[in-house]
Amino acid sequence: MIALFALALATAAASAGPVVRTADGPVRGEAAGTGGVFRGIPFAAPPVGARRWQPPQRPRPWTTPRATVADHATCPQVSFGWNATSADASDEDCLFLDVRTPDLRPTAKLPVLFWIHGGSNRAGGGGGTVESRIADKGLVVVSVQYRLGALGFLSHPALSREQGGHSGNYGLMDQQAALEWVKRNIARFGGDPARVTIAGESAGAMDVGLHMLLPGSRGLFAQAIAESGTAGFGTPPRSLATNERLGTLIAGRAGLSGDATTAQLRALSWRQVLAADRDAPVPGLDDDGFIWLQAIVDGRVLTDTPARLLASGRINPAPLVIGINAKELTLHGGADAAVPTLRREFGANAERALRLYGLQPGGTPVSDPRLGDVTMQLANDLTFRCPTVAVSNALTALGGKVWQYQFDYAPPGGSVSHASEVGYLFNEPQPGQPPLQAYWTNFVRFGTPNGPGLVTWPAYDRQGRAYMAFDQDGPVAKAGLRRAICDLRTSP
Fold first, then answer.
1. Are 92 and 175 in contact (CB under 8 A)?
2. Torsion 397-391-406-376 (CA) sign
3. Which of 14, 24, 250, 356 could form a disulfide with 67 if both were Cys (CB 3.0 to 4.6 A apart)?
């Protein structure tokens, strides 16, 4: 009886909610003050059957209002523990986005925050983001889902032959399709398509960085926020040929021969694909968990390596907030891997780097109460801090505006870790906590994080290298984040 009553209430709420007519069909959401919340709007056709491993296509139009009030499926993924709920909700029909708006009037022209979830490009989901009341600060929030793992990023010789010599990066194309949906439709939700800020954390930040380099993403956003991730993510890029070889290996692990056809690939269940994807050995990577955190230069979506695109100035010089957490991830392989990793990554500058880390013969490995031991410092310098500095330098060299930060706030007795800052962005701010939400919403609304009542956050330049430290002492403007180390290695 209770379940039937709850269902009746949900049905009544769905039938009474606001209706917005998108370019594909009307959607009925849930009222939220003068605005509304819409969960599970399809921005592309289900990527199933013949549409698997194809660029996303517009959904089939509909005419009857579609209820968009309930939780929806996440894109297929296996469970790594932290994402168990998302893994249980997996379905290949998953190309949905959610919208929360404080004002449904088309004349409102509110700025838009477009959030790309993290999860190593192989896990996570977009659901739940629009439950945040950050929209009450005067902006429209959009959260997007995209194909993950091998379903979103696999290349294969058969797929490349089918698609004019290119395959892979379907997840990035999904994000582009969602941004195109925003351009077509967001005014109907009170948003301004000319004032879209793309933002993401971890793999989401990597994807933000890539969109700044992708020709197909030009004109789809005006600003960007990258939290703990860059286009290169501190890893070597993969060529199309290398990704095709990896795809052939994954297909083989799923039971297909080396000359598998597209029909055979698409006949596999998504569970077979992702089981074969999991723990697949990846040439050139210390940690196979980074399998889809390598930029894939497929020649269609991503036309060159992030490093070469940055060096040649082929980046969208959009205003950017970019930063890292004081501690993110540990070094794969631990202390035994520190010196070999350092020598490989710093090349001709390895001896100088060994001294800075205290890893030279007879040296004492450096340790820091906030940055961690030498392995933690090395891992985060290589994967996060120094790539962030490299992107900041490249963008400001082109005249772009950058605001850089390092987040190191934790409750008393706690420690910062990967994704620690996200809660301070989306949750209701509490006294004494760092005012991330205020700085971020200022940036989305006005193009600068600064505003009344806030400590001034100086813009970054290559000489002073200003950044904002969010730590136990509150926001403090500092300069030269890991300058001595990162001057020895500045790849993106």
1. no
2. negative
3. 14
